[in-house]
Amino acid sequence: MRTNFSLWWLLAIFFLFVAGTYTVWNIIAHAQPDVAWYHGIEWVGTIALLFSAFMAGLIAFFVQRVHAAQGGELPSDILTADIDDGDPELGEFSPWSWWPIVLAFSAALGMIGLAVGAWMFPIGLAVFVIAIVGWVYEYYRGYFAR
């Protein structure tokens, strides 16, 4: 995890450097003798790069605080660790379930309804509700009921 927050801090510094370079470059490129220097700044790109540096710094700070709170190294930080040492329990999944495909179809139908005809959107919404209910309650009915 030490490598993670080091990389995020490095990315934040990089974005800050690029924001400064971008701003100075725009001031030089748009310099005119009768116009103030701050009118040469391209504000959208400068603010976007500054916010990117800020967000990378926030992630770096968070990951660094989590690392300090854990009081130990992760298996990915230990050179002698095996792959199985960092393998967490991800949860229970249903490989036989068809409901995610129905859910994706309902999202596609809803988007097509927004693009082509508004009459298709309620149909996509109805299929979405059916898919969500079916996916949530698939263990309560049928062959795999508990």
Topology:
Elements: H1 2-29, H2 43-70, H3 99-115, H4 120-136
Brief descriptors of the model:
single chain, 146 residues, mainly alpha, 2 domains, 4 helices, 62% helix, 0% strand
- Arithmetic mean of pLDDT: 87
Strand fraction: under 5%
Protein structure class:
mainly alpha
> Which stretches are low in confidence, meaning pLDDT under 50 for 5 or more residues running?
none
Largest sheet: none
What series of H and E elements makes up the topology?
HHHH
The total strand number stands at: 0
Please report the distance between the alpha carbons of the first and last residues: 40 Å
Q: Based on Cα principal axes, name the global outline.
A: flat
Total of helices: 4
* Radius of gyration, whole Å: 26 Å
Number of domains: 2
Tell me the helix content: 55-70%
What does this entry show, briefly?
The protein has 146 residues and is mainly alpha-helical. Helices cover 62% and strands 0% of the residues.
